[in-house]
Specification:
The chain has twelve helices and no strands. The protein is mainly α. Helix 7 runs antiparallel to helix 8. The longest helix has 34 residues. Keywords: Exocytosis, Protein transport, Signal, Transport.
Length: 315
């Protein structure tokens, strides 16, 4: 419905301009005295219908409808100057009063919806299953990507929020959403790996890497700042190093405790590697076991655990 309203608003604005031009250019005889009033009546009725529809969304506060209401707001905001230019006399005053009222109500609804989105991310209750990217991380960063094209409108809407609002800019909103996501993931990690399993570091590394990548894709890293990016890259490196040390340190140690016997060292390495990789795979498809692992085999196996990101292993 909002898509149709947006299209109708654009078409009506163009149609009214053409209608006004044609009426002014034509000699309609006795009707010349009334054609101005006739046009004003048609234009007023058209705008009132559009405003009534938009006003119906001013009570919408659902995060799921945030993008639709935001697009509606942007269309009305950008179309308003051209529409108001069509009116003269008392009609101008009437429409000029109604449009700002509807826009202000939409702004309040959008601020409430962004706050509700932040709360939803912070309080989402699903548990961590496996060590891969959590659905909440995917949901949050998808929201960021969808909101990114509307950053100019959100900057204006959030800046006018007044005292007590959480974020006062689009960048502030993104930072709040990601911070809420990370707090939620930390809680889920603590519950899922309460036994202190090294997998907790793998879970956090995969999700931190995902957030960094999607933030870059949405072109919001610059809004978050160099310090934010550096802190998250450092956090990623720490989780990766802790996981590798806790899980694979004993495997590597097999190569150092074979008493100078390479064949025995490699056999023990293969056996311990198979056991450790099998326990860490969780939801991933198990690799076919081989008698001997090459360097590429090891890199590929570990890459699967890190959501296919072999770059994490370059340490």
């Amino acid at each position: 419905m909002t898509k149709r309203w947006i299209l109708a608003t654009k078409l009506i604005a163009k149609a009214l301009v053409v209608m006004q031009r044609q009426l002014l250019a034509q000699n309609c005889g006795a009707f010349n005295r009334f054609k101005g009033d006739y046009f004003m009546a048609v234009a007023k009725q058209s705008i009132v219908v559009l405003l009534k529809f938009a006003d119906g969304f001013t009570s919408t506060q659902s995060p799921e409808k945030l993008i639709y209401v935001l697009e509606l707001y942007e269309t009305l905001s950008s179309s308003a100057p051209g529409l108001l230019h069509l009116f003269t006399g008392p009609h101008t005053e009437l429409i000029s009063r109604q449009v700002p009222v509807v826009l202000a109500k939409l702004e309040r609804a959008l601020r409430t919806a962004t706050g509700a989105l932040a709360i939803k991310i912070q309080t989402e209750s699903s548990q961590a299953e496996g060590v891969g990217v959590h659905p909440l991380a995917e949901y949050t960063m998808t929201c960021v990507e969808l909101l990114a094209p509307h950053r100019a409108a959100l900057d204006m809407i959030l800046a006018d929020g007044g005292e007590g609002e959480r974020a006062t800019s689009f960048g502030g909103l993104v930072a709040e959403l990601i911070a809420g996501l990370e707090r939620s993931l930390e809680e889920k990690c603590g519950l899922a790996f309460a036994d202190g399993s090294p997998s907790q570091h793998l879970f956090l590394a995969n999700n931190t890497s995902f957030v960094l990548s999607r933030a870059a894709d949405a072109d919001v890293t610059s809004l978050l700042g160099d310090e934010w990016a550096a802190r998250h890259r450092s956090r990623l490196e720490q989780h990766t190093a802790r996981y590798l040390q806790a899980s694979w340190g004993p495997v590597v140690a097999c190569l150092e405790t074979a008493g100078g016997k390479p064949a025995k060292a490699l056999a023990k390495f293969n056996a311990v590697f198979d056991e450790m990789h099998g326990s860490q795979e969780q939801k991933y498809m198990k690799l076919d076991k081989s008698v001997r692992y090459t360097v590429d085999d090891v890199a590929q196996s570990l890459s699967e655990l890190f959501e296919g990101d072999a770059a994490l292993l370059c340490t």
